Amino acid sequence: MALDRPKAVVSWSSGKDAAFALLQIEREGQFDVVGLLTTVTARFGRVSMHGVRETLVEAQAAAAGLPLRKVEIPFPCPNEVYEREMARTIGELKADGVGHVVFGDLFLEDVRAYRESRLAPTGVRAVFPLWGRLTKDLAREMIGAGLEAYLVCIDPRKLPREFAGRRFDESLLRDLPAGVDPCGERGEFHTFVAGGPMFSRSIPVVPGEVVERDGFVFADLLPG
Asked: Model-level pTM?
């Protein structure tokens, strides 16, 4: 009799790297993915950092056929509060049999080390299915696979404001300024995924307001 696969959740930002990590881990079949784990800023009802509406992340989870586990944090949120709430949630997941958290990180060693160090005391292990991939190739692989994504948050110190709201496609890649990572791995931009092979259906969205807040430019997306 075949052994049960170890249970995993995917750290879910609503963006392309998390979505492609989900696709990769499901294709490999090593883990039983039992949910998505996301951080929501309670005051705004939006995914932290990306600024995506909670309702749209819920629609993503439904399209992926997976339950969504939310970690609610205040605004502003000191790092110790974030770490406390995340540790509490990881403890609850472990009690439910989850032994792995899947991340969409690509090459930032300090980010990986931080994630591994925070999980180490819990016994839950971090998994990085996209780690070390050349981002110029990975970006085109995502687009070629049919991933539909939009830039919802940009760092105006690295990208012109006009990039906010643009679709993540070949045209965007051609227009990125020199030195900007094609996947935005250094924080140049963050995305929302509205469709792709990791979903059973697309999520209709329409563009909303573009605002600048806390040094970043956010392009709001509304349910279509």
From this structure: 0.96
